[in-house]
Design a protein that fits this description.
Blueprint: H1 3-8, H2 23-28, H3 31-37, E1 52-56, H4 63-72, E2 78-80, E3 84-85, E4 100-101, H5 104-112, E5 116-122, E6 125-130, H6 131-139, E7 143-147, H7 150-159, E8 164-169, H8 173-183, H9 188-202, E9 210-213, H10 217-232, H11 239-247
Helix pairs in contact: 4-10, 8-9
The structure holds guanosine-5'-monophosphate (5GP).
The site of guanosine-5'-monophosphate (5GP) has 15 residues, from strand 5, strand 6 and helix 7.
């Protein structure tokens, strides 16, 4: 029995359809040949890239509050990707801090120029994630945090299957409605629309890797940070370090 293979082969090493090799086998062939064997699909020998973290959840669940709390004391390597939107600024919001506020025409030009990683129309307004910033920041090895709704998250999943998808849920629907009303920035009609959309969004939680209840903001943040930390320890993400470590054995 080859215990080494059993212990060190990498089942499900992403991308999933790449060959599964034991560390020992990899040691026997050169890095160059391994990459060729992997048909260029495995980047685990490249420099470590940052993680893409996607936080979604129904309207009013408190994604914004949770995100602000996380970034009030951010982890060293975690940055927030500011979205673009065509929705009007709310009181207190700042362009370039809360959103990049655009007209519908400007937003549509961004779509046409392929400048968005994902975008959607949500309750009558466009929202989208600028692509270049995300790409550049991940390449630099930093983690990028997106706070987006479910349609956008689905698009991101297709482009970044290695992303970490977290869904925030409310303690109850009643509590959710209360939170939307308490915000006091929306008309009755918009609140009704947001509740309708929120119920549909809740049904999409199956697309996510993790579900976190937002009963208490600090506790939800603690869990999200713990998820990110645990994801950094996933073996396939630190394969290059393991290669070096085992190369010296
Ligand atoms: P709000 O108008 O309350 O700021 O945001 C409305 C919804 O749009 C929220 O669910 C928020 O997470 C989502 N959202 C914010 N930015 C983006 C984005 O860049 N892309 C997508 N798809 N949704 C976003």
């Amino acid at each position: 029995m080859n215990r080494g293979r059993r212990e060190f082969s990498v089942p499900g090493e992403r991308p999933a359809d790449g060959p599964v090799l034991s560390i020992r086998m990899k040691q026997r062939i050169s890095i160059h040949r391994y990459k060729k064997f992997a048909n260029g699909r495995c980047d685990c020998l490249e420099k470590e890239k940052g993680l893409l973290i996607v936080l979604s959840g129904p309207s009013g669940v408190g994604k914004g509050t949770v995100r602000k709390e996380i970034f009030s004391n951010p982890e060293r390597n975690l940055v927030y990707s500011i979205s673009a939107t065509s929705r009007p600024k709310r009181p207190g919001e700042v362009d370039g801090v809360d959103y990049f506020f655009k007209t519908r025409e400007q937003f549509e030009e961004m779509i046409e120029r392929g400048e968005l990683l994902e975008y959607t129309e949500y309750v009558g307004n466009y929202y989208g994630t600028p692509l270049e910033y995300v790409k550049k920041t991940l390449e630099e090895g930093k983690d990028v945090f997106l706070e987006i709704e479910v349609e956008g998250a689905k698009q991101v999943r297709e482009k970044f299957p290695d992303g970490i998808f977290i869904f925030l849920i409310p303690p109850s629907l009643k509590e959710l409605e209360k939170r939307i009303k308490n915000r006091g920035t929306e008309s009755d009609e918009t609140i009704k629309n947001r509740m309708k959309v929120a119920k549909e969004e809740l049904k999409m939680m199956g697309l996510y890797d993790y579900v976190v209840e937002n009963d208490e903001v600090k506790e939800a943040c603690r869990k999200i940070k713990a998820i990110i930390e645990a994801e950094h320890c996933r073996r396939f993400r630190i394969q290059n370090k393991l290669e070096k470590l085992l190369g010296g054995c």
